Amino acid sequence: MQLKKKLSARMRLKYVPPYAGAGEMPQPDMRVFTSAGQRIWAHSKILASASPVLESMIEKLQSTERKITISGVPFDAVHIFLQFMYFAKCSHEQMEKYGMHLFALSHVYSVPQLKQVCTRGLAKRLNVENVVDVLQLARLCDAPDLYLKCMRFLTNNYKAVEETEAWKFLQDHDPHLELQILQYIDETELRRKRTRRHRREQSLYMQLSEAMDCLEHLCSEGCTSVGPCDMDPNKHKGPCSKFSTCQGIQLLIKHFGACKKRGDGGCSRCTRMLQLFKLHSSICDEPDECTVPLCRQFKLKAQQDGRGNNDARWRLLVKKVVSARTISSLSRIALNPRRVRRFSL
Ligand SMILES: [Zn+2]
Ligand SMILES: [Zn+2]
Ligand SMILES: [Zn+2]
Question: pTM for the complete prediction?
């Protein structure tokens, strides 16, 4: 009893009304009680204008008994909640300490401005220890953005979250939510794997498309050490803009020209070169005027073979390389607007 008295005396000393600092105010006309029976004086008009839920509660009050109770959260959280109704702001420290309580209050009493502040504040303060609680609260309080942020955080930090008490508690008491979270993590992992595979494939098609550009450039205009047969070797040009790829193709062409094992299929470099010639032939529109070796032969062979077993896979590869070429030529145009005119002529 003594202790209770001391505590309430200390609180009276510390107590600052929620409207302190709001300038000239009329006398407060109602009391808000908290769970522990503590009392906060406030202005019914301010509370009613900030929250439709409080408004309807206040409308039902008898004129003699103007009091309501906000329970389930600590006194300080109720105090900050009321303070927000006067000043529409709360401090970093208040958010740090009572963010979750304020979020729940903003939802229950329908104060959207505070709910937004709390959603941002809680999302910024997510950590391994609090993410499960915030996620549950976000679900209860119908806050899909915050819920999604928690799910992403959980997915990226699952190993650490799995060790927390909050996660163990969730496993014991809400297996349905646990299943939902695990499914989300699985789907995200699958999506990420698919994206990584897609990027790897795209990069391969881009490399092949560049190899095709270099092959055509070598067989029509020549580069540092390889050029068309009828070209004077002294007239070979300096390194082109795609020289790292071009040089590789030049080495392959030179090897192909000199390799003794070329015919029997026993040389992987020659096989690669043949594949590049074949790929070129598959995308070449002008085989009759084309200077790339074996272009016409591969075209003819493809017509004679018809549709073999591997045809579908090969055709898919050709299609992907053609679209990679289109993308790369379009991005070159986008980077160099002067080429747009040449392109449209
Ligand atoms: Zn070159
Ligand atoms: Zn070889
Ligand atoms: Zn060709």
Answer: 0.68
